[in-house]
Write a structure and sequence with these properties.
Radius of gyration: 34 Å
Helix content: over 70%
Order of helices and strands: HHHHHHH
Strand content: under 5%
Shape: elongated
């Protein structure tokens, strides 16, 4: 009934209105921090360790599981990064994200998502993706080589400037030491 709902809402309001705002902020911060730490552990640290153990034990059947996990995780990380403004404002998002990572780490969690969604998308666009990746690699390589050349040219130019200045100073000092006081006075008068 309406009165029962009103009483519950009123009770809730009175309970939390008496809690200082700073305390609520601290509780929210602890909730977010805890979920982020757990997501990092469950979503990245544990799978990285499990992948390493799988590699060391040489179990090809488990390779597939972890490769699918990392492909799905990479896609979700990109979605999470670009959608963070929207997602971070959703109620219970940290808890849902944590539960989702737990499901992904399970043996068939990421595999289901990969096989149903990721594999068809990747297969349909594999040629385009490969073409774009090749182009990106080429551009990065060209940019790095160009930057390296420019850096070497700058080092050569600055080295020449330093050597030239050092040479001029050494000649100047040597010349001054060879001149007699009378010659020095004459040169100073001319200048």
């Amino acid at each position: 009934t309406q009165s029962t709902w009103g009483n519950k809402a009123s009770l809730f309001f009175h309970l939390f209105s008496s809690v200082p705002f700073e305390t609520l902020n601290m509780l929210l911060f602890l909730r977010l921090l805890t979920s982020r730490v757990l997501c990092a552990f469950i979503g990245y640290i544990y799978p990285a360790y499990a992948s390493l153990k799988t590699y060391r034990r040489q179990r090809p059947s488990e390779y597939t599981q972890w490769l699918m996990y990392w492909v799905v995780n990479a896609a979700l990380t990109i979605i999470d990064y670009y959608g963070s403004f929207f997602f971070d404002n959703m109620p219970l998002y940290p808890e849902v994200r944590l539960a989702f990572f737990v499901w992904l780490v399970m043996p068939k969690g990421a595999a289901r998502l990969y096989k149903k969604y990721m594999a068809p998308i990747l297969e349909a666009h594999e040629e385009k993706i490969d073409t774009h990746l090749s182009e990106i690699k080429r551009r990065v390589s060209d940019t790095a080589m160009d930057a390296g050349r420019k850096g070497m040219d700058l080092i050569k130019a600055k080295s020449f400037e330093i050597l030239s200045a050092t040479h001029q100073r050494a000649v100047s000092l040597a010349t001054q030491e060879l001149l007699t006081p009378k010659t020095r006075t004459t040169i100073q008068q001319i200048e």
